[in-house]
Amino acid sequence: MKISQQAVADLAGVSRGTVDRVINNKPNVKPETRERVLAAVEKLGYSPNSNGRALALCKKQFTVTAVCPGPEVPFFSDVLAGIEAAKNELGDFNFYVDYIFTYGKTSESVIAEIDNASTQAVMIAAEDTPIIQKTVKKVTSRKIPVITFNSDISKCGRLCFVGQNLYKSGRIAASLMQNLLRGEKAKVIIVAGSQRFQAHKARIDGFIDALGEYAANIRIADVLETNDEYEKTYHALSDSLSGHSDIKGIYLASGHINGALEAILESGKKYAAVANDLSPAIEKALKDDIFDFTIYQNPFEQGYKPVMLLFDYLLKGIKPSQTIYYTDNTIITKEMI
Amino acid sequence: MKISQQAVADLAGVSRGTVDRVINNKPNVKPETRERVLAAVEKLGYSPNSNGRALALCKKQFTVTAVCPGPEVPFFSDVLAGIEAAKNELGDFNFYVDYIFTYGKTSESVIAEIDNASTQAVMIAAEDTPIIQKTVKKVTSRKIPVITFNSDISKCGRLCFVGQNLYKSGRIAASLMQNLLRGEKAKVIIVAGSQRFQAHKARIDGFIDALGEYAANIRIADVLETNDEYEKTYHALSDSLSGHSDIKGIYLASGHINGALEAILESGKKYAAVANDLSPAIEKALKDDIFDFTIYQNPFEQGYKPVMLLFDYLLKGIKPSQTIYYTDNTIITKEMI
DNA sequence: CTGAAAGCGCTAACAG
DNA sequence: CTGTTAGCGCTTTCAG
Q1: Which residue in B200, B184, B176, B192 sits closest to B291, CA to CA?
Q2: Which residue in chain B has the smallest CA separation from A329?
Q3: What are B149's strand-pairing partners?
């Protein structure tokens, strides 16, 4: 485009250096001059050429530290793929990602690692506990930008959160359940992790709210707490299924997939079943018509987006425009895997 | 990164200019020198810095011509949004998009416009007729890259096609229909545009194939040809519904939405109904539980992708890596609009 | 066929 | 507080 920094400088009667200072909110500019430059920018409709900027900046080093469970957790291996993809896309810069994997580590050792990390930005997926909140707060108070992803952390001064809209995913599950149980009077079971966790509760709330609005024919027979453990999931679901002989549907808001599958198979019946996420076990269950739908929360995007957001912040000082970025909820059937 | 053009030049004992010539396959390099440079590139693992390249190239002008119906067609207004988004993202270049809108024009006048267009690249969504094929072929034979989008054109020398996987969308519709009609013996009607159009036929084939594989309980009662006209759709569906008293489901592979809605409402019954695409009428039908699902073919992406592909081709000489880019088929329920 | 030099738009370091 | 200058990595003249 025509309108370069130089054009602005000429119009404002200053040098390119000064324009740069104004554009990037750097100190040492007389308010009066700043005004003049801003006016020129406005008048010309100038916007900086990102290639030029990128080129000038590519000698700088950028480091972001990513804190999350690690590749052992299938879901997070997809998230990590997103992080790596973002990193590759930024290959023309001196851009580094340090990982702190938390899987199998004690809170203390993780916190120590975070405290010791020398980095310019942090993205973190961890439990929303007081001790974690405190640790993150220590980071943000050092003016280091932090983005939470996958699972939000409260009261910690983070820039923003990137993750699934859990309430919405519950509502979507409800619409699917309604379609599976078209009009017939039916009882369904909700399999949950633990309702004390706010995240788990959001899905259930969405599910129940939406059913209440448009599916009076569907009744919740049970909400099972499973702690996401195999044994608990299996037993709770097994018991509930044999306790109520007339269950038609199961919503797996959370819980241990194999535990649930075991209980369902053992019952010998076919239920309307909606699950969350994608894993080999879930794919197989879809193919075998044990599950009818699953709701997928783009894990790739959950890794990719925070990196890009932090990079923009570091490089251009652009703060994320939202405090919450919801990733897509996608409905998956057996035909889509 | 460290390894710049200069590093390669030094190692190969040539100048940066020569490295550039080799990298970009330009003429006037002694084969022997070329070898030497290539070896150095290999050894250093050099890959050009795209910011530097972009900066050097941003004085050049790029023009692509987009041929498609126009904003009057709701679907294409979303496609156009994708084109504009791509254009904005390329704002740092001298990049232009010329439009040739075909809506309401005769084939002759459109063809004349294409023939007269002075452009460096073309993206086109048009009918796959012999006369269009010939016109496009004339363009490609002038070494002007062409990408077809939304609807492919055969035997025309195009670079690639960007659009929906129609067969797959039919299969997905089948899986949804199966879920809506869980196990019960049921008859369904397929509403089509015209089976003579290969595009329309693909959806139907996918639907029928998938049902055949796993839903023996579902029978096709009728396949209606509607030419996508209101009257024909309305009458054909009305007649078919009253002709078979036991229809349970309707698959709107194509056809006029309002015509179909009219017929369904008039019947006074609730059917399992799967549609395609998204429009205000379809959104309302989903909200009102007249349709249960619709399958969405990311129109935005259909506009965005071809622009980017052509730009890469023009700027870097990179040919699209695939001959067909399928855009996402997304399942939509009333909770997702 | 090849090298040297200019310059794309921007930032940063140094003078003043 | 502000101007000048030297590149960032690349392409493109223009000489030779």
Answers
A1: B176
A2: B336
A3: B162
A61 CB within 8 Å of a chain B CB: no
pLDDT of amino acid B145: 95
Q: What is the CATH number of domain A5-56?
A: 1.10.260.40
Q: Do B175 and A335 touch (CB under 8 A)?
A: yes
pLDDT at B123: 98
pLDDT at A301 over 80: yes
Domain range list for chain A: 5-56, 62-164+299-329, 166-296
Residues 51-110 of chain B with CB under 7 A from strand D are: 51-53, 55-57, 60
Given 3.40.630.30, 3.40.50.2300, 3.40.640.10, 3.90.1200.10, which CATH number is that of A166-296? 3.40.50.2300
Hey, which CATH number is domain B62-164+299-329, 3.40.50.1980, 3.40.50.1460, 3.30.365.10, 3.40.50.2300?
3.40.50.2300
**What's the CA gap between B311 and B318, in Å, rounded?**
9
Does B166-296 match B5-56 at the fold level? no
The reported pTM is: 0.93
- Pairing assessment for the beta strands B293-297 and A94-101 based on DSSP bridges: unpaired
Query: In sequence order, what DSSP letters do the residues of B91-116 get, joined into one string?
Result: TTSEEEEEEEE-TT--HHHHHHHHHH
**Which residue in chain A has the smallest CA separation from B174?**
A335
Given this model, what pLDDT does residue B50 score? Answer: 87
C-alpha A147/C-alpha A310 separation (Å) is: 8
Protein-proximal nucleotides of chain D (any atom < 7 Å from a CB): 1-14
Residue B91 confidence (pLDDT) above 70: yes
CA distance B256 to chain A (A): 24
Q: Which of residues 254-283 of A touch B (CB under 8 A)?
A: 270, 272
Selected for mutation to probe chain A from B47, B93, B182, B290 (highest A CB count within 10 Å) is: B182
Range in A266-270, A315-319, B157-161, B290-294 the model is least confident about: A315-319
Q: Any idea of the CA torsion for A85, A87, A92, A98, to the nearest 10 degrees? A: -160
- Residue A63: CA count within 13 A, CB half-sphere: 7
Residue reference for tokens 């909110």: A25
Nearest to A302 by CA among A333, A277, A278, A327: A327
